[in-house]
Design brief:
InterPro entries: NTF2-like_dom_sf, SnoaL_5
Radius of gyration: 14 Å
Shape: globular
Mean pLDDT: 95
Number of strands: 7
Helix content: 25-40%
Pfam family, one: SnoaL_5
Structural class: alpha+beta
Order of helices and strands: HHEEHEEEEE
Distance between the termini: 37 Å
Protein name: SnoaL-like domain-containing protein
CATH topology: Nuclear Transport Factor 2, Chain: A
Oligomer: single chain
Number of helices: 3
CATH architecture: Roll
């Protein structure tokens, strides 16, 4: 898959709420995932660990009121999307937030992602 094809498929699956399928299909086994500095999940390495991180996030959510993402912006082997979510979290209440996600693609798989959002 080209970077554009990976980006389009990720956006499609995210909009359908199929995060696990996106990881299974699009992520490399040795993926590196980064969250903002100071986050409890600041660095996650490996597809299994990324799936676990996603599961822990899903378990922290009481209700998702809305969630979507932008069209991808592609440059060479990188792409970015903006993600929007309005959710009620079990420990933090209702939060509306947006984040920029940047992905690196190699050999048709996502080998790195990094998320940028305001903490706190």
């Amino acid at each position: 898959m080209t970077t554009q094809e990976v980006a389009n498929q990720l956006v499609k699956l995210c909009r359908e709420g199929k995060n696990d399928q996106a990881i299974d299909e699009l992520y490399a086994d040795n993926v590196v995932s980064r969250e903002p500095k100071g986050s409890p999940m600041e660095l996650t390495e490996g597809k299994a660990a990324v799936k676990d991180k996603t599961l822990r996030w899903e378990e922290s959510v009481q209700e998702i009121h809305s969630a979507t993402c932008s069209e991808p912006l592609v440059a060479d082997n990188h792409f970015s999307i903006v993600m929007y979510i309005d959710a009620t979290y079990k420990e933090h209440g209702r939060i509306k937030m947006s984040e920029i996600a940047v992905y690196e693609v190699k050999d048709g798989k996502i080998v790195a992602d990094e998320f940028f959002y305001r903490m706190g």
